[in-house]
Design brief:
This protein is mostly helical. It is built from 2 helices and no strands.
Length: 67
Protein backbone atom coordinates (compact mmCIF):
# COMPACT_ATOMS: atom_id res chain seq x y z
CA UNK A 1 0.00 0.00 0.00
CA UNK A 2 1.27 3.47 -0.78
CA UNK A 3 1.69 5.95 2.00
CA UNK A 4 1.00 9.69 1.84
CA UNK A 5 4.56 10.74 0.97
CA UNK A 6 4.74 8.32 -1.98
CA UNK A 7 1.39 9.54 -3.29
CA UNK A 8 2.51 13.16 -2.97
CA UNK A 9 5.75 12.37 -4.82
CA UNK A 10 3.87 10.62 -7.62
CA UNK A 11 1.44 13.52 -7.95
CA UNK A 12 4.25 16.09 -8.09
CA UNK A 13 6.14 14.11 -10.74
CA UNK A 14 3.06 13.74 -12.93
CA UNK A 15 2.21 17.44 -12.57
CA UNK A 16 5.76 18.39 -13.57
CA UNK A 17 5.64 16.11 -16.62
CA UNK A 18 2.36 17.63 -17.78
CA UNK A 19 3.46 21.19 -17.03
CA UNK A 20 6.84 21.12 -18.77
CA UNK A 21 6.13 18.77 -21.67
CA UNK A 22 4.64 21.23 -24.16
CA UNK A 23 5.63 24.71 -25.23
CA UNK A 24 2.43 26.44 -24.28
CA UNK A 25 -1.16 26.92 -25.19
CA UNK A 26 -0.79 27.08 -28.96
CA UNK A 27 -4.00 25.79 -30.59
CA UNK A 28 -3.37 22.73 -32.74
CA UNK A 29 0.14 22.14 -31.41
CA UNK A 30 -0.49 18.51 -30.48
CA UNK A 31 -2.49 17.54 -33.59
CA UNK A 32 -1.01 15.10 -36.15
CA UNK A 33 -2.02 17.40 -39.05
CA UNK A 34 -1.61 21.07 -39.91
CA UNK A 35 -4.33 23.67 -39.42
CA UNK A 36 -2.74 26.24 -41.74
CA UNK A 37 -4.38 25.22 -45.05
CA UNK A 38 -8.15 25.26 -44.55
CA UNK A 39 -8.94 23.50 -47.83
CA UNK A 40 -6.57 20.61 -47.13
CA UNK A 41 -7.97 20.33 -43.60
CA UNK A 42 -11.53 20.24 -45.00
CA UNK A 43 -10.58 17.54 -47.52
CA UNK A 44 -8.88 15.40 -44.85
CA UNK A 45 -11.79 15.81 -42.44
CA UNK A 46 -14.35 14.95 -45.12
CA UNK A 47 -12.38 11.90 -46.28
CA UNK A 48 -11.98 10.44 -42.79
CA UNK A 49 -15.61 11.19 -41.88
CA UNK A 50 -16.99 9.57 -45.05
CA UNK A 51 -14.74 6.53 -44.66
CA UNK A 52 -15.56 6.13 -40.99
CA UNK A 53 -19.31 6.49 -41.47
CA UNK A 54 -19.63 4.66 -44.78
CA UNK A 55 -17.41 1.63 -44.20
CA UNK A 56 -19.92 -0.34 -42.05
CA UNK A 57 -22.55 0.06 -44.78
CA UNK A 58 -20.13 -1.06 -47.48
CA UNK A 59 -19.07 -4.06 -45.40
CA UNK A 60 -22.69 -5.12 -44.83
CA UNK A 61 -23.45 -4.67 -48.55
CA UNK A 62 -20.43 -6.80 -49.44
CA UNK A 63 -21.50 -9.54 -47.02
CA UNK A 64 -25.07 -9.54 -48.33
CA UNK A 65 -23.99 -9.71 -51.98
CA UNK A 66 -21.49 -12.47 -51.22
CA UNK A 67 -24.15 -14.98 -50.19
Amino acid sequence: MLNASQLLLARNISKAMVRFHSHGGIPGENLPFSLRNRYKLTAIFTTFTVLGFGSPFLIVRHQLLKA
